[in-house]
Amino acid sequence: MPKVALVTGSNKGIGFAIVRSLCKQFNGDVFLSSRDAGRGTAAVESLNSEGLKPIFQQLDINDPESVRAARDFFNEKYGGLDVLINNAGIAFKNADTTPFGTQAEVTLKTNFFATRDMCNEFLPIIKPGGRVVNVSSVMSSIALNRCSPELQARFRSNDITEEELVGLMERFVQEAQAGAHSQGGWPDTAYGVSKTGLTVLSRIHARKLGHERPADQILLNACCPGWVRTDMAGPNATKSPDEGAITPVYLALLPAGAGEPQGQFVMDKKVHPW
Ligand SMILES: NC(=O)c1ccc[n+]([C@@H]2O[C@H](COP(=O)([O-])OP(=O)(O)OC[C@H]3O[C@@H](n4cnc5c(N)ncnc54)[C@H](OP(=O)(O)O)[C@@H]3O)[C@@H](O)[C@H]2O)c1
User: Fold this and answer.
1) Positions marked catalytic
2) Nearest partner of 211 among 273, 262, 269, 138, judged by Cα
3) What is the pTM assigned to this prediction?
4) Which of 137, 141, 223, 260 has the smallest CB count inside 10 Å?
């Protein structure tokens, strides 16, 4: 059975560049996924014109039916998944005037809660020796440092559970909607908090894999791709999408038998203290 890799939100931007790089380096089938079939197949055709052969999979991480259908497909066709890159994400523009509470709800829905749903459906089918990469952001670290000392202590602790983290993320949304997030110890960045949640979730899931499947040698990490010229970050960012793909692809292709990095936050291929 061939090996298989899946990249979420890969019809454009960093995800698209990750698929391009995996097509050149990964010894197996590479799936480009998009919530929209038209945008996804157009992206596949664009890589075909470069001589690359990714395969399209419809996947909207906000739609539990779509997530489960994709999981069942990979389970039935490949017996699981070797590489999962959770790249799909959203960000409101700085100039957007949508109320902060709405921005908090919408941003956390995709970047934290839906990515968590992806992990919870797909982690059980990640094969031994598999690699999971969560595309977080340096903003996760910046937002962490702007949280209250109490919140920082919980987000840095090694005993925070997924349930506690989910409760804290829900609390952020509720307090943001009530205009009370500053008093609650949260920073003024919904995107940053969503990515703090994703980096902490990655630490929790790596710890859990170590307890529950120690022999399977699965490595799971969060990373920042850098500041990348995409629709999200705009034309002034410093890296090209191909440069932004380097660290996620490095983590996806960590060699067989490697024991680290595991449960880390990685930037420019280096572990960054959390
Ligand atoms: N660009 C940067 O400087 C930067 C820095 C740090 C971290 N990041 C992170 O890197 C990742 C990729 O960002 P990017 O800059 O490439 O952004 P982008 O160009 O806006 O691309 C985002 C991708 O995610 C997809 N997506 C959004 N919601 C989705 C959903 N519910 N289901 C499936 N796909 C969904 C989008 O699909 P549609 O085309 O259908 O909208 C698009 O393919 C994000 O997680 C982002 O937070 C980016």
Assistant:
1) 191
2) 262
3) 0.99
4) 260
